Amino acid sequence: MSQMSSSGWLLAFIISLLLSLLMGLALVWLSIERTDKAYSIRQLRNEVEQRAVLKTKLEVERDRLLAPHVLRRKAIQLGMSEAKPGQIRRMPDPGPEAGVQ
User: What contacts 70, CB < 8 A, 6 or more positions away?
Assistant: First the structure.
């Protein structure tokens, strides 16, 4: 009976050792996954920040290019001037029934 009892304890010890090993491996794996996710999140936040900065720069550039004095100067460079009376013709809107393809 003592041999049966000692083999039972040995089996329980081996099972608990294997479970401890598996739990340790799972803990390490989860830690690696958490670190990987944190790195991915950090990269995505940096990308969002860079895109926000770029968007702001592009908005400033657009506003600068659309400023009236800049447009006036560019029109003069291209030889453009205001339309004189009679130079503008208005065409009627054909509407959806015209069947434009």
Answer: 64
Q: Which structural domain, as residue segments, surrounds residue 56? A: 29-80
Residue with tokens 């908005």: 59
CA 54 to chain centre: 13
Is 38 inside a domain boundary? yes
Q: Is 85 left (phi over 0), alpha (psi -120 to 50) or beta?
A: beta
Q: Residue 25: helix, strand or coil by DSSP?
A: helix
Q: What is the pLDDT confidence band of residue 99, given thresholds at 50, 70 and 90? A: low
Query: Helix 68-77 to helix 2-65 angle, to the nearest 10 degrees?
Result: 60
Total domains present in the chain:
1
Q: What stretches of the chain show up as alpha helix (H) in DSSP?
A: 2-65, 68-77
Please name the residue that has the structure tokens 């996710």.
37
Q: How far is residue 29's CA from residue 23's CA, in Å, rounded to a whole number?
A: 10
Residue type, 99: G
pLDDT band at 100 (very low <50, low <70, confident <90, very high): low
